[in-house]
Design a protein that fits this description.
transmembrane, membrane, about 0% strand, single chain, transmembrane helix, mainly alpha
């Protein structure tokens, strides 16, 4: 084996490792951004509206699964299909948020900072798992194997789905 071939093998391994680490980091950066958005929303807007958002995600999921006009949404190209489905879900979530915001009052609600962080993490997990199982985001973006191992299996979807509700049960007082 010559020195140049072993050097090229080392370079290929280093390049592959660096790209894998960067891909994994960028995918976890997406998760961190969603967590940060949810946490900052709860921190600045309030705990009551944050609970209303979490409950609106559940209500929108229920209506989204039985929405009778899915055939009117575009099926191709993949990016337009994903955007149409996400837009429909976001519109349903916003509508339920407006309704639930009137019901959930923050005067009698307390969630600590650690509870907000945990609920933000569980909410982000809920949204990413929903993206895998309801919106088929893998047709638009291929996540790293670590993200796929956490969110793609259908056995885990149940736990990501009930996670925010369980978190609310334990952290909201």
């Amino acid at each position: 084996m010559s020195a140049t071939s072993s050097l090229s093998d080392v370079n290929a391994l280093a390049t592959h490792t660096a790209s894998s680490v960067m891909n994994l980091g960028s995918d976890f950066f997406v998760v961190i951004i969603i967590i940060a958005i949810l946490f900052l929303f709860a921190w600045y807007i309030g705990r009551g509206p944050f609970v209303a958002v979490i409950l609106a995600l559940y209500a929108a999921s229920a209506v989204y699964t039985v929405f009778p006009y899915m055939s009117f949404l575009p099926a191709s190209p993949a990016s337009a299909s994903v955007l149409a489905h996400v837009g429909l879900y976001a519109a349903l979530t916003f509508g339920f948020y407006l309704i639930l915001r009137r019901v959930v009052v923050s005067d009698f609600l307390y969630i600590g900072v650690i509870g907000l962080a945990v609920l933000s993490f569980l909410g982000a997990g809920f949204l990413i798992a929903l993206g895998y199982h309801s919106f088929d985001v893998t047709s638009v973006h291929h996540f790293s194997s670590a993200i796929q191992a956490l969110f793609a299996p259908s056995q885990y979807f149940f736990w990501w789905f009930v996670g925010p509700a369980i978190g609310l049960f334990f952290f909201a007082r």
